[in-house]
Amino acid sequence: MPSSRSTIGDFSILPISIPPLSSYPKPATHHLYLRRNAPKIPTPDDPRSLFIINVPADSTHLHFRALFTALLGAGRFESVTFEDDRKTASQALTDLLPAQAARLASHASKKRKREDEEAQHAREEETARLPEPWSRPLRRSGGSAVVVLADERSIEKALKAVGKAARSGRYPVWGAGVPEQNRTLGSSWVKAHVRLTYPDKAAVEAAVDAFFTVYNRREKEAAELAKRLRNEPDEDGFVTVTRGGGRTAPAKREEAEEARRKMVEKADKKREELSNFYRFQMRERKKEEQAELVKKFEEDRRRVDAMREKRGKFRPES
Description:
By secondary structure, the protein is of the alpha+beta class. It has helices at residues 61-72, 89-96, 99-105, 115-127, 152-168, 180-183, 186-197, 201-229, 253-312, and strands spanning 7-8, 11-18, 28-36, 49-53, 77-82, 144-149. Among the domains are: 7-86 and 141-186, 2-Layer Sandwich (Alpha-Beta Plaits), CATH 3.30.70; 254-318. It has 9 helices and 6 strands; from the N terminus they run ββββαβαααβααααα. A hairpin with a 2-residue loop joins strand 1 and strand 2. The longest helix is centred in the C-terminal third of the chain and has 60 residues, at 253-312.
């Protein structure tokens, strides 16, 4: 039965047909809400992006590719980014690595390493990641996603196709065209999770060894960077007080006193500049007031001279 409404606010409503499952042997209708993407922080892809609310819990990249292929034809869909996408494995790995390296790296210019070193480090970090325990993620109920299409014209065609589908009652079938292995959930999905939760022992040992290799390399880089930064003032004139002689050794007292002295000198200089600025404002204001008084005096003097001249020409009748 066609939907009674095709829009709500700025959103277009797209009903999709959910086929019956063994756990719920009845067809159902799910509603997606779409509009042009307009984030607070603009990106170059905004003109060809759609913001979608109420994505199904089993959504995947292949599901949305099949959905927009059914609406627009092949070659229009480019990518989808889900609201609850977890951090990438590389980001998760970075969170476990020494924080000191990340903090110190922000204070120094990064030099591009040789390509062979970069490739070696990438291989080490890839090996340091443990296998994913889930064969596919589930989305948060009522969550959102951003779909990027080929161009801005595709966005217009997609919104028209959504309105046409809602009015005609011919709803796209969710999961149509997606391979079976990418649609399977239920008990087989849980069994796969149990199997992936216990990876091969050799793979775990290799990942742990690689992780500590990366960890030690990052610690070494942090120590070298800290050594270079010692006693080097930054762009504001402050000195970064770093730990020296090992991870647990405190900063030298002389370094701390020197940093404090420079900070006090900078504050005094700033205060003096501010005071001079106000003094300059006062001088300028006094000059303006004096100029105004002189101007008024000259006007009054000209007015008095005019009155005297007029009185001198007056002759009473005899």
